[in-house]
Amino acid sequence: MTAPKRLTDRKREAIIQAAIAEFRDNGFEITSMDKIAATAGVSKRTVYNHFPSKEELFAEILNQLWVRVTAETETSYRADVPLREQLRALLMAKLQMLGDDNLLDLARVAIAATIHSPERAQDMVARMGEREEGLTVWIRAAQADDRLKAVAPEFAAQQIHGLLKSFAFWPQISMGQPGLSAEEQITVAESALDMFLACYQL
Fold this sequence. Notes:
The protein is mostly helical.
C-alpha cells in the first residue's frame, strides 16, 4: 500500500519541478499543462489529478516558496546572551536560506508571473509579509528588555532583511549573479550587524 503512495508523491514532485522549469523558461501565460506533463514525463490526466488547473499548480509553487522563505531558524530572545551573538545566528540562517538554488528558482518564477497579475503579487506579498516574523518578535523582546531603542519592530526587521537581500537575493534574482560564498555571507552579516546595532542598540 505504501509503494503506490511513494510513486504518487514522486509524480507530484516531478510535476512541480517541471512546472517551475516551464514557468521560469516560458512564463506563466505561455506555459501549458500539456507542456508541463511532457516535461514531467507523465500524462496530462496525471497532472490534472494532482492539480485541477494551472492556477492551482502555480499556487502550490507559491506555497512552497512561502514555506521556504518563512522556515527561518527560530531564535528566541535571551537576556543573558549578547545581542550581536543572537542576531548573528538569525542573519546567518537567513543568508543560507537565501542562497538556496531551489528557493531562487521558485522566487524567479513567482516574481515573473506576479508582474502580470497584481492580484497574484498582492497575495504572495501579503503571505510572505505575515512572516519574516521571527526577527520582528526577537526585536520586540530585546526592546522590552531595554536593550534596543523604541523603533517599530516590523520596520527595523524589514531594514535588516533589506540589507541582506541587497547582496544575497536581488542580484541573483535580477542579474543572475552567483550566490554568496561562505566568506561573503559572513562579511554581509557582520556589516548588517554593525549598521543595525549602531542605529538601535541602547
